Amino acid sequence: MAAAVASALERPDLITAEIVEASENEDLAVKYGVSSVPHTVINGKTVSLGVDTQDAFIEKILTLQEPAAGVPPLIREGEEVHVDIVIVGAGPGGLTAAIYGERSGLKCVVLEKGVVGGQVALTPVVENYPGLTRVAGKSLVDLMAQHAGQYAHIHQGEEVLEIKPDEQIKVSTNRGKYLCRAVILATGAKHRKLGVPGEERLYGRGVSYCATCDGYFYKGKKVIMVGGGNSAVTEALYLDSLGVGVTLVHRKDKLRAELRLQESLFSRKIPVFWNSGVGEILGDKIVTGVRIENTKTGKTEEMQVDGIFISIGYEPVNELAKKTGVELDEAGYVKADRRQRTNVPHIYAVGDITGGVKQIVTAVGQGAVAAMTAFEDLANPYWKEKEAVG
Predict the structure, then answer these.
(1) What is the pLDDT of residues 361-371, one digit of tens each?
(2) How much is the average pLDDT of 170-191?
(3) Exposure string for 38-59, b = 16+ CB within 10 A, e = fewer
(4) Cross-strand pairs, 349
(5) Active-site residue 210, yes or no?
(6) CATH 3.50.50.60 fits 80-190+314-389, yes or no
(7) Which member of 52, 84, 214, 377 is catalytic?
(8) Domain 207-310 = CATH 3.40.50.360
(9) Most exposed residue of 53, 143, 312, 321, measured as fewest CB within 10 angstroms of its CB?
(10) Does 214 participate in catalysis according to the annotation?
(11) Whole-model pTM?
């Protein structure tokens, strides 16, 4: 929305923008098949579902279609920027690393290919961050971003394509190149998908991974929430508070969520399908139902629903780490020691990309440790000491 308004303000002679609240304009929502937000329509044509970076939005204005993969925005060819630390990812871990790195006297830049804040920005309510009893995830990361922005440059919409480790590390992006002394990987994790028929085809048309974004479309309607952890139960409670008829579907007979969340779920009498999974998502143009499979008996049944929300965990965003030669564990998470060092000198990892306890407070702590470790290592390279001893 911000990119649309900015474009209209910049060139009012060519562009007009209108922000429509879909829940209050049901005729338009039906006309354009809106069931997730943001839903961008240009000249009557849907061009995207979900948040766009500014560069991607401009490309869509010019072409009225999705940008071709790998097409970079206009930059000065061959431009190189010298910094001390490049931080890849602007979630809580990356933003904290920028604060601590700059306060140690190191020049830092944070590069984020998507939206600042990562998964936390999509979390309805955070109730376990020390000092803040209850806060919206977006509000929390906005505070972090504002704080980090007072110290370091944060570049949204800039994707890191390659990292070449050497005495001087070369980081190539879709906008230019950076020469740096250290890299902190904070690329996080992405929503794990069910991998069932209908999931990809009906994404944004009844299939959603974000109750905060899309929940209000289903007020008075019937949906299922798939999952049994903290995120799934939190979002089920959020949907219930909106007046959505939500049923939780979980593959086991016990939930993994915190006891307090489970107590809230049961006290509100939200139905739970135990030992059940989704075998198929049904519908032509929009979701109309799901095929539920019992994991113990194998029995299947169809359930009529207007939407399906999926929260079954995350998968590490590790493509860049793989290309750089960083060692991964069996699940694909980056291996890092207690000082956040990876096997590649001067490359560190923080947050969800390292696996373990995927919590905001954990990522923040790791971000601080990584920045301080980088500061110490740049002054006294630990690997050179090992080589001398050997």
Answers:
(1) 999 999 999 99
(2) 94
(3) bbbebeeeebbbebbbebbbbb
(4) 185
(5) yes
(6) yes
(7) 214
(8) no
(9) 143
(10) yes
(11) 0.73
Given the residues 52, 108, 180, 210, the one annotated as active site? 210
Q: Within 218-359, where are the H helices? A: 230-241, 259-267, 319-324
The confidence score (pLDDT) of residue 28 equals 72
Q: Is 50 exceeded by the pLDDT of residue 70? A: no
**And the tokens for 311?**
């929260």
Provide the residue ranges of all domains of the chain, joining segments of one domain with +. Answer: 2-63, 80-190+314-389, 207-310
Structure tokens at 226: 């798939």
pLDDT at 69 over 50: no
CB-based contact 304:286 (threshold 8 Å) = no
CB 268 within 8 A of CB 240: yes
Beta-carbon-side half-sphere exposure of residue 352 (alpha carbons within 13 Å): 22
pLDDT higher than 50, residue 73: no
Phi, psi values for residue 377, rounded to 5°: -70, -35
Rounded Cα–Cα distance for residues 284 and 16 (Å): 33
The two structure tokens encoding residue 306: 């207007």
Domains 80-190+314-389 and 207-310 share a fold: yes
